[in-house]
Design goal:
The protein has 117 residues and is mainly α. It contains 5 helices and no strands. Helix 3 packs antiparallel against helix 4.
């Protein structure tokens, strides 16, 4: 049950990322969150929307794992949490160390709970 709660929270977090990147990137809240100027936000908007779409795929997979039959749920959750973890580690090494704590660490915690408890 704890693993499912963590998966749902991670899905919600990535839904928030999707909204920020796809719809709020060049709005005041999006620029504040990502530390962008209006000019930079406008120049990178399409890239951010693409990134947001990928976060949407992670959300879909994580939610799928919550409702999948028992035989598939753990495999799906492991795959999509692994994707989140890898994306978080890569983001932390290329963009900001904060991503390690915001994205990768929760995914790692969920993977540990899912597989060992």
């Amino acid at each position: 049950m704890i693993a499912k709660i963590l998966i749902a929270l991670i899905a919600a977090l990535h839904l928030y990322f999707l909204i920020l990147e796809m719809f709020l990137w060049d709005k005041p809240v999006g620029m504040k969150v990502f530390g962008n100027s209006l000019e930079k936000a406008r120049l990178t908007k399409v890239l951010a929307q693409n990134q947001g779409l990928y976060n949407g795929f992670l959300v879909a997979g994580l939610i799928w794992s919550l409702f999948a039959p028992e035989g598939y749920a753990t495999v799906l959750a492991n795959f999509f949490l692994g994707c989140v973890l890898i994306a978080g580690v890569y983001g932390a090494s290329t963009v900001s160390q904060k991503i390690l704590y915001i994205q990768a660490l929760p995914a790692l915690l969920a993977l540990i709970v899912l597989n060992f408890f």
